[in-house]
Amino acid sequence: MCGMEYKVRCGELTPRQLAAFNQSGYSEKFIRLLIERGIDTKEKADKFFNFDPNQLHDPMLLKGMPEAVARLRDAINRKQRVLIIGDYDADGICATAILYKYLLTQRVRTSYFLPERDADGYGLNIDLIGRLHEKFQPELLITVDCGISCPEEIKYAQSLGIDCIVTDHHAIPEQTPNCICVDPKFTDQAYPFDDLCGAGVALKLVQAMEGLEVAKNYFDICAIATVADIVSLTDENRVIVHHGLKMLNQGTVPGITALARACNIRGTIKSGDISFRLGPKINASGRMGNAKRGLDVILEQDETRLERIVKNLLYMNTKRQELCTVIFNECVQLIEQESLQNDSAIVVAKPEWESGVLGIVAVRLAEKYGRPCIVLGGKGEIYKGSGRSIAGIHLVECITKAAECLSTFGGHAMAAGMSLPVTKFEAFRTLFQKIVTEAAAAQTAENCKYYDFEISESELNPQFFQEVAMLEPTGCGNPAPVLMTVMRETRAVSLPSHPSHTKFDSGQLKYIFFGGAAFNSILAAPCVKSVIFELQHNEGAAPQAVVKCVIPFAINDEEKALVLQRYLHDDLAVTPDQNLQEVIHGLSIDRSVFIDYYKATLNLVSQNNYCPSVLKLFGKITLPKKNIFQFVFCFAVFQQLGIYEIVRNRLNIHNERTTELNKSAIYNKIVNLN
Predict the structure, then answer these.
(1) Could you tell me which of 372, 347, 349, 371 has the C-alpha nearest to residue 430?
(2) DSSP secondary-structure letter at 4?
(3) Between 149 and 253, whose confidence is greater?
(4) Which end of the chain is less packed: N or C, by CB atoms within 10 Å?
(5) Among 419, 442, 465, residue at a domain's last position
(6) Alpha-carbon gap, residue 388 to 413, rounded angstroms
(7) Which residues pair with 143 in a beta bridge?
(8) What is the span of the domain harbouring residue 625?
(9) According to the model, what pLDDT value does residue 13 have?
(10) Intra-chain end-to-end CA distance of the chain, in Å
(11) What is the CA radius of gyration of the chain?
């Protein structure tokens, strides 16, 4: 993993800042959390903690909304056939569900269509419009969560005699469709909030048609989309999600209740459950080519059918996870082989890669390498794919400047989708990297991660936990607190069902570290370490700390060797400190050194191949001049090449495997640094 620096978000509070909350009774730490979220006065705090739905904005302030209402009412009165075209992600699915359910209450002849990611692509296309016209014969077409960047497709629909209303929330392109368009991103409108999701815009259409009381019936579905689509949980989104979660926990959407049960969500459903457990299952349906399953889980009421739908979603999600892992590993191998990790932006492609999961792969790559990443795949002459960015680099703005190479594109500052001819791949990669290099030179935001502040174990007490619960619902724009505490040795235990994850207790908190089992030895070491964690509120249960990063401050050689191990295996999520940098720059890449350690290890294993740990094995190595750091380095390279294999604390040496050191990414990493 490319080193990422963690920084504290802001300093201590001033007397003036504290005075603003004089009568609140809040702890100083909680006041800091509020101020860091821009809530620096009592008035702002009152608004933040006010969930009255009446404060939702007037939907008629949205440009195009009065015209959309008039046209839809006309369609209802004239009993016209209406077709809803959505998108294949959770937001598009939920937006479709809201509008479809509403139109059914109006006894409108309504049909819907959710595209298949591979067959139809994102948004609209001419061929799709033709097929839908032939199948449904609509008189009014309404897009949800798509359409704002499809002027030619809308024009074609109009040529077939279809009236069109576009409702979307994506960035406004240079040319928009010549029809009624509703999008909070238009700058020439009086609407005071521009970060609704697609389902949020569909909800505002219902509110404009029938008023707030009717619109409130759809808060539950809109809450799913708002959290899953990672729009800001501030302003009216916070109100919608607050009430939507309450509704979901009362069982208003039986399919979500069934899905939550299948995901082992105990107690109440929280925004974090939608982000990490429910949303991905709904998204998996679209990613794996059948978005209708995601819609079915929201619309279906029959328990027997829901059981089958939920099982199918879980199956598709498992397949999606497996596919993501395979493609991610192939991406890493390609990046390391072609030394792309130091490019300003990473752009990779392979025809065999399934385009439906490439967004998730791009997220993991952007996290791993700390730079914008675009991953493309697809059969035939067109690549389709997704990109994810980092702080300070507006992805769609950069992609727009490379539009000459692209067939289609769209998205946000941090995420985008696109398609392009295979023949233009190299030209696009070169141009996009140049654009990102210029954007990075101009931007002032640091590419680092932040935690809110350091907190002691004594300050992690019941009062603070109760205060943190008031921040819910948390997510984009209103993140759960990320804190740092200092620990010494603690006993970490791998989870029996998921051995790569680990857990440990400290003070009043239980910590879980996903993918952190490799850090068990460091956690157990007596050295000081900073543990950065996200504090999650669990209603009716103790709060939980989800570890984001462990930063060890190694003193002796054994501790430094433990940290070096994690660095070599790409587990160390932070920039190496000066001690570790000195160790790294002291490593030898001389082939003869590797041969010496290989022979010494082979001699040892021929007597007894028991290997409880690499460091203990080092203690038995007999060489005139041995170095613990060099041994850890050699061992890691031989492991990666498949020459060394540890199975149940036994070291097996495969003599037949390649000894070409430059085929190891670990070896090349040190070569490039030294």
Answers:
(1) 347
(2) B
(3) 253
(4) C
(5) 442
(6) 9
(7) 85, 166
(8) 584-673
(9) 83
(10) 17
(11) 27
Tokens for 593? 């050194």
Q: How far apart are CA 433 and CA 346, in angstroms?
A: 8
In a domain, 481, yes or no: yes
Q: Mean per-residue pLDDT for 638-665?
A: 87
pLDDT in tens, 438-448: 988 876 556 67
Per residue in 277-325, pLDDT (tens digit) is: 999 999 988 888 788 999 999 999 999 999 999 999 999 999 999 999 9
The pLDDT mean for the chain works out to 91
Instruction: Grade residue 121 by pLDDT with cuts at 50, 70 and 90.
Output: low
Of 442, 473, 506, which residue constitutes the final position of a domain? Answer: 442
CA distances from 420 to 88, 388, 411 (A): 20, 17, 15
Buried b (16+ CB within 10 A) or exposed e, 26-46: bbebbbbbbbbbebbeeeebe
Looking at the DSSP bridge assignments, the partners of residue 347 are: 374
Query: At 393, which CATH number?
Result: 3.10.310.30
- Whether 512 contacts 501, CB under 8 Å: yes
Torsion angle defined by CA atoms of residues 222, 69, 156 and 411, in that order, rounded to the nearest 10 degrees: -30
Q: How far is Cα 213 from Cα 201, in angstroms, rounded to an integer?
A: 16
The CA distance from 502 to 506, in Å, is 14
> When comparing pLDDT for 253 and 500, which is higher?
253
Share of the chain above pLDDT 70, in %: 97
Q: Which residues of 122-148 are buried (b: 16+ CB within 10 A; e: fewer)?
A: bbbbeebbeebbeebebbbbbbbbbbb
pTM score, two decimals?
0.86
Assess contact for 145 and 199: CB atoms under 8 A: yes
Residue 259 has which token pair? Answer: 């899905």
* In a shared domain, residues 18 and 119: no
Find all residues with CB under 8 Å of 394, minimum gap 6, and list them.
413, 439
With respect to residue 324, please indicate whether it lies within any of the assigned structural domains.
no
Q: 591-607 and 628-640 are packed helices; what angle lies between their axes, rounded to 10 degrees?
A: 80
Q: Residue 550: in which H helix or E strand, if any?
A: strand 544-553
Distance set, CA 405 to CA 107, 342, 402, 429, 431 (Å): 46, 23, 6, 9, 9
Give pLDDT, residue 1: 40
What is the bridge-based pairing of β-strands 346-350 and 373-377? parallel
Give the chain's length.
Answer: 674
The pLDDT of residue 96 is: 98
Shared domain check, 139 and 110: yes
Shared-domain flag, residues 594 and 553: no
- The reported pLDDT for the residue numbered 543 is 85
